[in-house]
Amino acid sequence: MAYPTVSGPYGLIPINLIGGQVFAGATRQIPIATNSSTAIFFGDVVKLDSSGTLQKDVGTSAATPVGVFLGCTYTDPTFGVTFRQFYAATTNITDIVAYVQDDPSVLFKVAVVSTGSTISYVNRTAVGNNAVLIQTTGSTITGNSAVSISSTTATTSTFPIRIIDVINETESATGSFTEVIVKWNEPSSGTTGGHQYRQATGI
Lowest CB count within 10 Å: 34, 146, 160, 182, which one? Predict the structure, then answer.
């Protein structure tokens, strides 16, 4: 039997809410500062900074996410209102607004890698474990992210991601899984990591 293959990481894609709650696909609009220096791609992990604007969260084992970037809009001086799959670094426009899936209860589909963009796998024993993010730059052609999670999982409480299930559609013939379903972890006691909305000390 032929199994679907995953050619590379694609970021975090929201698919559901934990506990079977209805997922309406709602997003929050959060501004990006003019000339912000780091590109953000569809599916990238993002966070709020102290000025209330959005930036890419480049954390791996200690990410502090507010959610996932799902595109942006701004007024182009030539073309008018413009919608983009990704934010290009140092865009010199003052009204850039990102669409962010910021619900702490959202579940995401994500690819598993060994390093960089090299697709790997986990076994079902990884369900319930925590994982770190693998940060790889997205594509300016598709606008899509290349963020993924590591195939090495653990019970480390400070890791930002919890694996809650596997994706059966991409199960290999040997019973391993190249895609999983994940959620954000709660901030761990005594650390600054975890979803920003659940961080008691604020941002």
Answer: 34
